[in-house]
Amino acid sequence: MPPYKNQHYVPQHYLRPFANSDDRLCAYNIERETEFPPTPISNLCSEDWFYGGAEQEKSISPFEAECERILQQLRDAQTLSVVSGEDYRNLLRFILFQRMRTKQEKEDMDKMLTDVAEEIAEMGVESGEIGEEALNLLREDKLTVSHESMHPRMILSALLGPEYIADLRGVLLINGTDTGFITSDHPVIMDNPKFKRQRDRFLGGLQSPGLQIFCPISPNRVMFLYDSDHYQFTHGDNPASLRVRRVETVKSINTLQVLNALDNVLYTPSGRENEMKELHSNVKSQTRKRKLETEVHEEGNKISQSGNEVIEFGPYLPDYSPNIPFLEQTTKKWSDIERRQGVSDAINQRIESVISDAENDG
């Protein structure tokens, strides 16, 4: 096999702490509802030339090595506060990078473009500018829309934009039970339990008020980030760590992986198929392949401030949310679209600058 041909969208250094001594992981397949025997992590969460050529894979290797060092430090720690300064910024970059780099996210981008094209085609049919043939092809999934630069741009935004989530408070959840945390082929999960049932906007964005982020890093550790304007711990003063002592809480957090995985959740030891089936059965009605929603806002809607029709898209947030001990919602109400005004614009300008420099150098 040529070097760098097998490219991982969940890196082996991340998967290894969940694996057995032979670097193998069990996979529970969501669609088949079956546990598969332990598989080498080198064969999991990867595709040939997933990022394109060898240069793309080689370019992220130094960052991967830095992340591996920081994550190992956290896996041995009793508190998130052991990571600070530039290491903490790189930890935030890792969380964003891992969220953006997966096959699930790549498929979401293509699905988003196809959904937007379908909405535009419907407008065209209504106005008589195009025939129904193209619209029917989109509706029947016989025609899809993709853009080769969309996924790389999302990855670039993760590496250049730790400020997206720098305002969130972080807690290291430490597993004090015999039931291990699990991971998946799409392990970084975003949730918004406070606002997702009362929204008129998509609330799974990186700057959404009320955001929560879960990222398991071993069977014994989960990084948990939360918007402290809308959630607070009643036990301790904004703790940097929290020991999880109830199996029900571990299962509650593990359910997020079952719910958000593209194809497989991953874990050891083998023989946990019934446990995964139980978690899956509790949320099966919420599990669906379509992870993005699109919505058209008519002229005059408060979201359509320009007075024109607007197509909005964002991540689908299931109704399910895990129970985090001692965490409660604050009384603060929804205030704005972004937690910190100007952050997204500043990062977008940074991205455009980097792309422009690369094009000039090329």
Task: Explain the overall architecture.
Residues 299-307 have low confidence and may be disordered. The protein is 36% helix and 19% strand. It contains ten helices and 15 strands. It has helices spanning 12-15, 54-59, 61-75, 85-100, 103-127, 132-139, 150-160, 247-260, 273-283, 343-361; strands spanning 6-8, 24-29, 34-40, 46-48, 169-175, 183-184, 189-191, 212-218, 221-226, 231-233, 241-244, 264-267, 292-297, 310-315, 327-329. The protein has a five-stranded mixed sheet. Strands 3-2-12-6 form a four-stranded antiparallel sheet. Strands 1-4 form a two-stranded antiparallel ribbon. A hairpin with a 4-residue loop joins strand 2 and strand 3 (34-40). The chain has one domain. It is globular. It has 362 residues and is of the alpha+beta class.
Features:
four-stranded antiparallel sheet, 362 residues, five-stranded mixed sheet, 36% helix, globular, alpha+beta
Radius of gyration based on Cα positions:
21 Å
The total count of strands amounts to 15
Low-confidence stretches: 299-307
Q: Between the first and last Cα atoms, what is the distance in angstroms?
A: 29 Å
Main sheet specs: 5 strands, mixed
Order of helices and strands: EHEEEHHHHHHEEEEEEEHEHEEEH
Q: Kindly report the average pLDDT value.
A: 86
Multimerization status: single chain
Beta-strand share of residues = 15-25%
Q: Which descriptor suits the 3D outline?
A: globular
Total separate domains: 1
Order of strands in the sheet with the most strands? 7-8-9-5-11
Q: Structural class, from secondary structure content?
A: alpha+beta
Number of helices: 10
Measured as a percent range, the helix fraction is: 25-40%
